User: Fold these one by one.
Assistant:
Number 1:
Amino acid sequence: MDTLPVAGRADLTDAQWAVLEPLLPVGRKPGRPPTWTKRQLINGIRWRVRVGAPWRDVPERYGCWQTIYGLFRRWQRAGTWQLSIP
C-alpha cells in the first residue's frame, strides 16, 4: 500500500516524510513484504505519543497496534528515538 487511506490532521505531510524517510533504519530481514508502510506505523506512534492513549487504542488506519508498538520498542532499544539536544 503506497498511500494512506485516511490521513489524520497531525499525520506527517509529504514534505515531512521526504525529510524523515532517508534517516530511518533499513530493515535487514528478507521475506514477506510488510502489510503497513513505515509512514503509517510512525504516524501511529506519533498519534499514541501525542494523545497519551493505550497502545491498543491506536486507530486501525495506522496498522495493527502490536506492530506499531513492536516498531516503537525495537527502535527505542536501538536508540533510534534518542534526541540530540544541545
Number 2:
Amino acid sequence: MSNLSKRSTIYFEPTIHQALKMRAASTQVSVSELVDEAVRLLMREDQEDLQAISERVAEEEISYEALLNDLKTRGKI
C-alpha cells in the first residue's frame, strides 16, 4: 500500500463495492487509494466552490421574480 496511514470502515452497496474492486484490480491501485483519491477530489471541488462564493460575495443579489421579469423583458422566455 502507499503511504496511507489511517484506517476507517466504509460501507458500500454490494454492486458499488464490486465495481470498486474491479476498478482497483484493473488499474493495479488499491481500493483504499481509489477511495482516498475520490475524497480528495470531492474536497478540492468543495474548496473551489467556497472560493467562487468568496469571490462573488460583493455581487448584487436579484430575486427569482426579478430574474424572470428581466428574462421576459429581454425576450428570453
Number 3:
Amino acid sequence: MSGSEARSAVEAVWRKSSARIVGALARYTGDVALAEDVAQEALAEALVGWATGGVPTNPDGWLLAVGRRRAIDAFRRRAGRDERYAALARELDESEPGVDVLFDPDAIDDDVLALIFTACHPVLSKEARIALTLRVVGGLTSDEIAKAFLVGTPTVQARITRAKKTLAAAGVRFAVPPPEERRERIGSVLGVLYLVFTEGSSASGSETWIRNDLAGEALRLARILARLAPDNETYGLLALMELTAARFPARLDRDGRPVLLEDQDRRRWDTGAIRRGQAALARAIDVGRGLGPYGLQASIAQCHAVARTVDETDWDRIVSLYEALGQVAPSPVVDLNRAVAVAMASGPTLGLQAVDEIVERGDLTSSHLLPAVRAEMLARAGRAAEARREYERAAEMCASPAERAVLEDKLAALGRPPSAPSRPRRLES
C-alpha cells in the first residue's frame, strides 16, 4: 500500500470513529488531553504501519491498542513525579484488556456523550469549545478547523492547547454530568453545535456562501447528540439544522452566487432532509415541556419548507412564532426577523414601523442586516432614494463578499421597476 493510500485509509477510519476512540481512551485513562494526544500518536504510527503492512482487519481496535500502549508509556514517564500515575500504569499493565473492554457496548454511548460535554464545558471560552469539539469529537485536524474559521493553524492549535490546560486546571472530570447538571450544561453543547452550523450555512467573511463540510459536521454531531441525549431542545436543534440544510441545494446558482429564498427553485430542496427535520420537530414536541428557542426556529423553518411558494407561506404563523421566540430568547435579531415577517404578512409599511422601532432603540448599529432590511422595505414602499442610501450603507458594512454582491445587485436594480411592489423580498437564503 502506498503512503497516500495509507493516509486515505487512516483519515477514513478517524473520520468515522474518532469520537469513540478518544472517548474510550479518555474513559480508560481519565484524562481527555492525554487520550487525544495518544490517539494522535496512534494515527501517526498508523500512517507508517499501514503503508507497509496494510489496513488491519479491525482498524479501530488497532488504533485503540496503540493508543493504550502510548498511554501506559506516558504514565510511566510521569511515575517518578506522581505515585498515582505509577499505580494506574501498573493496573493498566496487569489488566491487559482487549479491544472488547475498551469498546464496552454499554459504555460507548456514554463515552461519546462525556466527550461532547467535556469539550463544551462552560469553563472554556466559546472559541475554545468550538475548536476542541471539532478536534476531539469531530475528528477534524487543526488545519481543517483553521480553514473553516479563517484563522491561522497556530491560533487553532493554541486554542486547543489552552482548552486542555484549562480543563485540567479546573479539575473537569471526564464524565456525563449528573441529571441535575445536565440540563444546564446541555445549553453549552447545543450552542457550540449551532455556532458551527451557522458558520457553515452562512459563512462570514468568506468568498464561499456555504461551507457544506462545516455545516455537515455540525449536523452529524447533532444527530449523535439527539441519539445519546434525547431532549426537546436537542431535537429542536436537529430539526432546525435539517430543515435549513434542506435548502442548501437551491441556495447557490451555477456561478456560486447566493439565491434568495423567494427566487429558489423549491424542486431542488432536499425532501429527505425536510422529512427528517419534520420528524425531529415532532419528537421535540412529543418530549414535552414546550418548544424552546431551537424548536421555535425549527417551526419557522418548517413553515418555509412546506410552502410551495413564498406567497403561500403562512406568514401570520411565522409572525406568531417570532413573537414566541422573542419571549423565550429575546434579541434584536429576532425582532428584525419578526419585522420582515410582518412586512410579508401585512405589507412594507407595517414592517418599516417595526424596523424603525429597532433603530430608535439603537440596536444592531454595527450589523449590515438592519440597513439591508430597511432598504428592502423602503424600496417596496416606493421610497427609492432612501432605499438606495440604506443599500449603500449595508454594502459598506457587510463582511461577506458573496452577500455584499447580492446587496450591490439590489442597489443596481433600483433603477428598474420592482417586480412585486406589494411584498418585500426575503433577505435570507
